[in-house]
Amino acid sequence: MADYTATVECEIDGRVGILRLNRPRQHNAINQQMMTEATEALRRFNEDERIHSILVTGSGASFCAGFDLKEIAAKGYTTMSQWRDAITADFEFVMQFWTSVKPTVAAVHGYCLGSGLELAVACDVTVADEKATFGEPEVKFGSSIVALILPWIVGPKYAKEWLLTGNDRMPASRAAEIGLVNRVVSEGTVEARALELAHEIAAASPMSVQMTKRAINRTADIQGMREALLSAVDTSILIESNLSPETAEFNRIANRDGMKAAVAWRDGRH
Questions:
Q1: What residues does 67 pair with on adjacent strands?
Q2: Which family does it belong to (predicted)?
């Protein structure tokens, strides 16, 4: 039986909890309400002893287009303190899928952009539809990366090429080549295939799986991952609080003409 909120749909399939981002008209862009509801859904799955693994996916045509830029522009943050609170909350939202006690499997289709990509990467295993498109366009409009996890997954050279160009058109095949995703599957089958994998994980000993995941994450922390990510959050706060001309113009167009016009302006400059 499915459980619906305004922005998240949850259901249980055997030992797998399914968390589906549910703002399809906005390509599942993450707003404040979705952050609250998805966090609560993840907490419930982690506390439910029936659930051994968690599948994360999106409704409609896309996995997730990142944070809702229209909502961010409307808030009109002007101080470093405001940006610190907002970016820290955004960072913790993404990283909870990495630190989740139970293993997380992302099923990615359509657009997977910005912090939507970071969310997919934060999941323990990522399965992609062959037609999925990945991207981190933040530098194109003077913005920042919320959770700079990409270098820890694909290495600094690939991460620099991607993030410094603002590439938002990477195909699934290339994402697999550089280690961003674990598997690429036939068009239209990603949720079913990812669910199979989630069931395979769920069939193993929960205690062993959870402790093994914790050990792997702890290895990354010993190497400095958490400290580096928090340092990058500080950089993001500096970028956002020092409003660039590109960001100011992007926000002005978004407020006046809508997000589609702002994105068209951004893409037209490159």
A1: 30
A2: Belongs to the enoyl-CoA hydratase/isomerase family.
